[in-house]
## 1
Amino acid sequence: MRVTDLGHSYPGLPQPVLHDVSFTAADGEVLTIVGPSGTGKSTLLRCLAGLLRPGHGEVCVLGKPVDGVPDGLSMVFQDYSRSLFPWMRVGRNVEFPLRAAGVPAAERRERTAESLAAVGLGDARRKYPWQLSGGMQQRVAIARALACRPRILLMDEPFASVDAQTRADLEDLTLSVRDRFGMTILVVTHDIDESVYLSDRVIVLSRPPATVAEQVTVDLPAPRDQITTRSDPRFVHLRADVAAHIRGDAAS
Ligand SMILES: Nc1ncnc2c1ncn2[C@@H]1O[C@H](COP(=O)(O)OP(=O)(O)OP(=O)(O)O)[C@@H](O)[C@H]1O
């Protein structure tokens, strides 16, 4: 993915939300996008997903300029309760986009089973979303995204609505699906520790009009581990670095 000089304004706001945002994401990379509250992180993600046409600049996915939702891209939203269909069983929810894309029934079944197994919900196919915990429902939403076999997965505050332990589990799940399926993942988060834990690189947006204030490379070893990675002195240093860039008082 290549983002070049992206800018966007909403009618009625005194200044643009995004201004000349540029960065690239390589195959298999995990990037997180952080920045001050209300700075335009979700707006940026919507532009990357082709859900919002930017005022200027360009997003290229797999070599093609984005004009509408591109092939090979899936998105997971924060609010799983609104993104899953409560009247459909879990299996139906996961295969929904495959039906819409005209994927044959046998392949739909195989991909649904594989995606649910990848998120640890191989036994939940016949349940309804409301019979599952919040964290399990977000796993279903992730499985639905995986079933499309995306090359790029966008996640907007995906773990903000679950408890701390579930959040840690879902962070590890995200890293494991990247390792297993090899896709590029971009995650918007408010949580600085989460951004460092998940990332190969953290994109820090400035205050509005938001541009890329800094890109922090996270060279922590893989596989990451919730206890050892987070207690690594380099982790502590990196989180302080990202926090300082968000506050705008880091020496560049
Ligand atoms: N559809 C819209 N119409 C008008 N203004 C909007 C719209 N969507 C967002 N905004 C405004 O654009 C700015 C950026 O919003 P956005 O949600 O992209 O920021 P964010 O960084 O994701 O926010 P948060 O940190 O609260 O999650 C805010 O001032 C918001 O009020």
## 2
Amino acid sequence: MMTCGMYDKELEVAVRVVHLACSLCQRVQETLVYRRADQVMSKEDDSPVTIADWSVQATVCWILSDSFKDQKVSIVAEEDVQTLSKADSADLLRSVTNTVNECLQEAPKYGLQKPKKTLEASEILKAISQCNSTGGPTGRHWILDPVDGTLGFVRGDQYAVALSLIQEGKVVLGVLGCPNYPMKKEWLNHQYSLSMSLLSTPASDMREGGCVMYAQRGSGKAWMQPLKNGGMKLQWLQSAKEIQVSSIDDPALATFCEPVEIANSNHSFAAGVAHSMGLKKQPLRVHSMVKYAAIARGDAEIFMKFARAGYKEKIWDHAAGVVIVEEAGGVVTDAGGRPLDFSKGVYLEGLDRGIVACSGATLHEKLIGAVYASWDSSNL
Ligand SMILES: Nc1ncnc2c1ncn2[C@@H]1O[C@H](COP(=O)(O)OS(=O)(=O)O)[C@@H](OP(=O)(O)O)[C@H]1O
Ligand SMILES: [Mg+2]
Ligand SMILES: [Mg+2]
Ligand SMILES: [Mg+2]
């Protein structure tokens, strides 16, 4: 038996809906790489958002609400309906509505219920805006990043669908869908590009590619499955294999990963820390929570993110990745060595400088020491 925890039912629904959401993203990404300009919108903070971000949020909201009808489902998620409800956004809303309805039609293939009738645009808006919970220290809250690494997504590169559950302020399960991160390791080392692989690989082969990872808190185990495009009605656990962090603890042999964008993490500070702790390899720059996935799977040993001072990290950018890395045997803390606190609402309040994840305690101690030593000489 691959799960035997308190949240088996929640985990099963979460894994199924993440598979479903990944298939939606794959379809949208294929069209996006050819028609980028008019399909990528900007939010108020200038970050990108697409049909996929809203559509996944509406889809996951509908499935969770339907699957847990007896509960008042609380969802903390990234997107809101501001852009979508503007007067000149009618086409956009129509695209989202169609995308969600098409996706939900496929739900039975994934062992989930589909709606009895086609959802109206107003119901889609309602579903998206219903994900406006702020989490907190009590009760049960789903945490969703419908598309994490939207920039990677629009570039035809790495991105993730991240769903997790917090209970009394603790992350109790996490699921990460990584449609462009194949089961085999070597793929991550090349920069993944959908547009390139579409030219060189038959689309069907490429669609076999991705994986979904998941873990339940306290199980001491984390799992990976191939992404199922044709559905997964029965025996959803069967194709899962256990994953574990890397056993490398020599910094000279370790690989570290970090965000692609300099705006999202201070690369030069990370390089200083890397040098100071004796890392020798070039950093692996990857969009999205695929970085946590790489640590959990043993494809890399260290993840560092040092956002600019004043930026507040959001829980949906980390929750699923953290529980999967920890259950796979890794360590995740802030740059001061303290565990991340998911109980304070939407933000990781009180975060000390940045976030680090390591495959084990030896590398983690060295990393925290190197941050401490490098801090004075930096001006983050
Ligand atoms: N200024 C700034 N500083 C730090 N972090 C920020 C910043 N702006 C955005 N974000 C969040 O970063 C999420 C993407 O992180 P990544 O590690 O994938 O970044 S990168 O694309 O590889 O550069 C990204 O998640 P998504 O919006 O889901 O893509 C953001 O939540
Ligand atoms: Mg994100
Ligand atoms: Mg996102
Ligand atoms: Mg975003």
